[in-house]
Fold this sequence. Notes:
Mean pLDDT: 79
Order of helices and strands: HHHHHHHEEHHH
Distance between the termini: 58 Å
CATH class: Mainly Alpha
CATH superfamily: Rhomboid-like
Largest sheet: 2 strands, antiparallel
CATH topology: Rhomboid-like fold
Number of domains: 1
Structural class: mainly alpha
Shape: globular
Strand content: under 5%
Number of strands: 2
Amino acid sequence: MSGRSPFSRIRFAGPAGWRFLPPVTRATLALSVAGYLMALLAPAAARFLVADPFSIVRRLEIWRLLTYPLVLQGIWNLLFGLLLFWALGSELEPSWGSRRYALFLVAATVCAAGLGVVASLLLPAGLDLPGYGISGLLTATIAAWALVGPRLPVSFFGVLPMTRGGFALLSLVIVVFGELEASRSLVRLLFLLGGLPVSWLWTRGRGIWPGPSGRGGRRFGFGARRRFRVVQPEKPGRFH
């Protein structure tokens, strides 16, 4: 019997290295680091990027709907976000394509900010609660990744085995109760969870966007799915 271990040939797959990361994922990581350094070294400049409802509604500073995830505070928030964006982006972007993945990130960011701003207008103290950070975008990305295969197995940081759906549910519980403990604000909660409708549309919304494999429901105006028709036996080989 050979003394070599049968596990010596096993290689564990993981996220791609930096050089092999798809472009949108790489840009997301770089922008997250840049946003953290800006919030740390130039907080005055970071104030012009947060999703401040008063500035958006009264001053029409619309760019804030898209730039608020760049204002990232806390080294642990940064490292946790980089780890998950690295892992999830390395899987979603090659599957969806860089263009569709980039549109998903933009749509989730704007949708969350829009819902937060609308809630701020309806609540008396809402205009005093700006949105910032990548937690909302990260939550939407986790939800989309889980909806692609909710029953697929995953290991929670290599320790606790669970399904993708269970991981997403645990993440949502942490986000919701963490925010409620910190701010007790519905506006802030919408800034964090407002991208979830986009996650659903991008993965399950037939007629709007196809699934990650490109074989989803019908699309508007381009790339519509072809229907198959059963032909008669006397006409072999003709399939439509």
